[in-house]
Design goal:
The chain has no helices and 22 strands. It is an all-beta fold.
């Protein structure tokens, strides 16, 4: 990613110049049913850590049950995902909903129709933290449930997911008052505006309103302007950090 592109608008159809391009055919031995055709675009990646952010769509298929291979945050744009847990319990994700699957979770991915999603993926060592509840479930934040900001506070943060080594986190920030000021982006941020609006006054194509998604690469001082009432769904990854995190 170029230093000039440290604030990038995530387009649901991929960049206007390329759109979504064909990706390799899935290994049939990993499938229960379907002959899926997948397309995508990566907005950022780091091959040394198997980290990536992008948009993906794919036709219907059912995956083999087993441990999920990565930590993955997803915002579903269209279609439906049915996650089947050991024992038969189902978690159904619909368009406009977000969810996180932790690495190593036993589950089966099923798609009855074409799906499109925005994603952040991080791979790493196998999880060992048995006390972190988020590592043993599919986390699906309630995006339309507004968090209460304590009296006198300007904003509040609700953390929904922390991966086993603390490098990947998912939270919702709620702003009771307008915020303005310079702040660095220490990690890689994938941000979806649930309500309100965000503007970066020192960057082109910098206004993001309800329903927009954008990506921030690290190491840049940004001047944020956040309207009162704004709520942001944020997935952040710090590839350099290996932190011990409390249970969620």
């Amino acid at each position: 990613m170029s230093d000039k592109n440290y604030v990038v608008r995530i387009e649901n159809d991929g960049p206007e110049s390329t759109g979504l391009i064909d990706w390799p055919v899935m290994d049939p031995s990993n499938l229960v049913s379907g002959q899926p055709v997948q397309r995508g675009h990566l907005y950022d990646e780091d091959e040394t850590t198997d980290y990536s952010v992008g948009v993906w769509d794919c036709t219907a298929f059912d995956d083999q049950p087993g441990p999920y291979p990565v930590d993955e945050f997803m915002l579903l744009l269209e279609g439906q995902v049915e996650m089947v847990m050991p024992g038969g319990a189902q978690v159904i994700i619909k368009p406009g909903e977000a969810f996180v699957i932790p690495k190593g979770l036993d589950c089966q991915w099923k798609m009855p129709d074409t799906v499109r999603k925005i994603f952040m993926i991080l791979d790493g060592a196998a999880p060992t933290d048995a006390d972190n509840i988020a590592l043993h479930r599919i986390t699906a934040p309630l995006l339309h449930s507004v968090d209460t900001v304590p009296y006198g506070a300007l904003a509040t943060r609700t953390t929904h997911f922390v991966n086993h080594d603390g490098r990947m986190r998912v939270h919702i920030d709620t702003y009771a008052a307008a915020m303005h000021g310079a702040a660095p982006a220490p990690g890689r941020h994938l941000v979806h505006v649930l309500n309100g609006e965000v503007t970066f006054s020192d960057h082109a194509d910098s206004h993001f309103s309800q329903g927009a998604s954008f990506y921030l690469s690290p190491g840049h001082d940004l001047t944020w302007n956040i309207a009162a009432g704004t709520r942001l769904l944020i997935s952040v990854c710090d590839l350099a950090s290996h932190l011990s995190q409390p249970s969620t």
